[in-house]
Structures are given as structure tokens and as C-alpha cells.
What we know:
Elements: E1 3-11, E2 15-23, E3 29-34, H1 61-71
Antiparallel strand pairs: 1-2, 2-3
Amino acid sequence: MRTVTASEILVCQLKPTLRVQVTTADGTIGRADVPAGRSTGSHETVEVRDGDDRFRGKGVRNAVANVEDRWC
């Protein structure tokens, strides 16, 4: 069995970011947090922010939903 979970976490300066955890069939766990940097080069990822009142529009619930819809 393999599981993929996503969640919104807060990093430095209380900025929300995405955390994804993958658990493999043998129980191995891999986890990645995706903090946003200041640079926005052409080879970097695209931020998916909520744009609502939470965290001045910087929440990542939409990004969490994208992961869960695709992998869970």
C-alpha cells in the first residue's frame, strides 16, 4: 500500500506552504516542504495560492487539494 498526504503548514514568518508526505508499501516515509523563495526565475515552480482572506491570500489549501485530487 502507498499513501500520499498533503497539508498546509506554516514556515518562518508564519508563511503558509505545502507539505507532502509519501508512505511506500514497505513503510518508508518521504516528506517534502515547499517554501516559497524570493526569486521567481523561469525554471522555478508556480505558486498556487488561495487568494482569500486567510494569510492575506497566501494560503495553500488549493495546492493541498490539487495533490489530494491527483494522488490520493
